[in-house]
Backbone:
């Protein structure tokens, strides 16, 4: 687990607008803390708030009365995503969503301020912000861009749950041990929905990812993320954000070539029984046999991006 403290700890978050690299640093700290065991389950804590509920069968949304409109919007987004997964992958599972106000927000893990979506895999529960006017994801240039950003991360969190159920239904907590693949899978589920339903959204968010990748290049380019343990908080934030955007772009590229079949081929082609022994090298070899091009993509990262310049 990374030992870095949250970059904005102690600062007022409700009206802060920060760059994307600082946002993703929070996700980084969270992703490496998922293995911690909470004293009380997140779902129990949500129910203790005595929220209202929207019950769609496979999806239950918890919300405060003031959040009903946003809760319905998330429910619509998730229900459509669930229908698409069922149709294309035969995947269906029950999950919960908590749409919370700033005064209700909590996290079992360090580094998740309002309003960074996060998920509890053990509870099949996703936490989402009710507000589009405050929180670390609100960075402009307009409300539509903010909404796209929040909704994409909401779909990314659903992607983590979908990957667990589609590939590793017997595993309740630990993600795939190869960190970049874990994030690629979650993003692939998310981008599959967006590209299937809203090409304008897909085009706009890909342009944002591409701009972020081109504006900064990390000092180390490697899919072995252990090097990040030695980075200072500001460099860690910018570096992780760069890699997340890079993976988002790779997922979009593969989807354009393979669609949902890529996810299906991973299910039958990867050696899931040996998942705990996976390494970067073994995963790349497996991916190359399933979807040629991953080895070249990995091997050319440095030469492709080293001339971007560090800003």
Residues:
């Amino acid at each position: 687990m990374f030992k870095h403290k949250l970059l904005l700890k102690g600062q007022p978050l409700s009206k802060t607008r920060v760059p994307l690299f600082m946002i993703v640093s929070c996700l980084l700290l969270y992703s490496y803390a998922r293995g911690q065991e909470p004293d009380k389950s997140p779902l129990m804590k949500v129910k203790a708030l005595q929220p209202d509920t929207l019950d769609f069968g496979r999806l239950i949304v918890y919300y405060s009365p003031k959040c009903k409109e946003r809760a319905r919007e998330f429910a619509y987004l998730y229900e459509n995503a669930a229908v698409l997964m069922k149709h294309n992958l035969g995947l269906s599972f029950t999950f919960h969503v908590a749409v919370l106000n700033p005064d209700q927000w909590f996290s079992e893990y360090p580094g998740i301020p309002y309003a960074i979506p996060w998920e509890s895999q053990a509870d099949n529960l996703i936490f989402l912000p009710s507000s589009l006017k405050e929180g670390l994801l609100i960075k402009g240039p307009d409300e539509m861009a903010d909404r796209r950003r929040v909704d994409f991360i909401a779909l990314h969190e659903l992607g983590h749950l979908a990957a667990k159920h589609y590939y590793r239904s017997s595993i309740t907590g630990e993600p795939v041990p190869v960190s970049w693949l874990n994030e690629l899978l979650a993003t692939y589920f998310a981008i599959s929905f967006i590209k299937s339903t809203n090409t304008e959204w897909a085009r706009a968010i890909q342009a944002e990812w591409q701009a972020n990748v081109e504006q900064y290049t990390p000092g180390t380019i490697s899919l072995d993320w252990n090097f990040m343990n030695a980075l200072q908080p500001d460099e860690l934030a910018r570096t992780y954000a760069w890699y997340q955007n890079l993976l988002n772009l790779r997922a979009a590229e593969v989807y354009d070539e393979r669609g949902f079949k890529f996810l299906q081929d991973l299910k039958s082609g990867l050696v899931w029984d040996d998942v705990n022994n996976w390494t970067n090298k073994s995963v790349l070899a497996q991916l190359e046999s399933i979807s040629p091009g991953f080895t070249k993509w990995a091997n050319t990262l440095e030469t492709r991006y080293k001339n971007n310049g560090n800003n």
About this structure: The chain has one domain: 20-305. The first helix runs from residue 20 to 31. The chain has a mean pLDDT of 83.
